Amino acid sequence: MTELVTLSAEDTHALGAALGQMLVAGDFIALIGDLGAGKTHFVKGVAAGLGVTDDDPVTSPTYTLLNIYTGRIHLYHFDLYRLSGAEQVDDLGFAEYFSGDGVCLVEWAERLGDILPSEHLSISFFHSGDDRRRLVFSAAGVRAEMLMRDLLAVCQ
Ligand code: ADP
Ligand code: MG
Q1: Between 9-22 and 39-50, two packed helices, what is the crossing angle to 10 degrees?
Q2: Alpha-carbon distance 154 to 156, whole Å?
Q3: Do the Cβ atoms of 103 and 29 come closer than 8 Å?
Q4: What is the pTM of this model?
Q5: What digits encode the pLDDT tens for the residues 112-151?
Q6: Burial call 48-61: b when 16+ CB within 10 Å, e when fewer
Q7: Which atom of ligand 1 is nearest to the CA of 34?
């Protein structure tokens, strides 16, 4: 487990963009943290790093649960804030995206319960002062470990 601190929304965006440049189809990023912690800002950065253009701005799919963007590969951006339990999630057909042709970034990923893919990079966001956020990384699987290592390498 490793952590980074960002001092502004722009910092968090830049970190996301760095990750976006590294992602390949099949990668799964679980985003955990309270409202306003910076998850969506991070996803905006990832989208930029994947080459999603500003013509298609990233907004939070709070009501739709899933927004799809296309850069050099598809970005599946989930926000599960409105979900209540894991049983409900099973019925929503998310699994086809998880093993699919793009990358998945899931806000409130803890709500996936059993359908959280066993291999994933998890990033927990914590408020740590006005514009300061602590991002705690945890890798499950070899690919996630590689991503985490590469990301930290470009940020140090
Ligand atoms: P979430 O998706 O976790 O609910 P958002 O990314 O939508 O959070 O909102 C984060 C809010 O916090 C935005 O208003 C953003 O401008 C602000 N903010 C301040 N500092 C930071 C930071 N270091 N990283 C990310 N967002 C920040
Ligand atoms: Mg959000």
Answers
A1: 40
A2: 6
A3: yes
A4: 0.96
A5: 988 999 999 999 999 999 999 999 999 999 999 999 999 9
A6: bbbebeeeeebebb
A7: 3
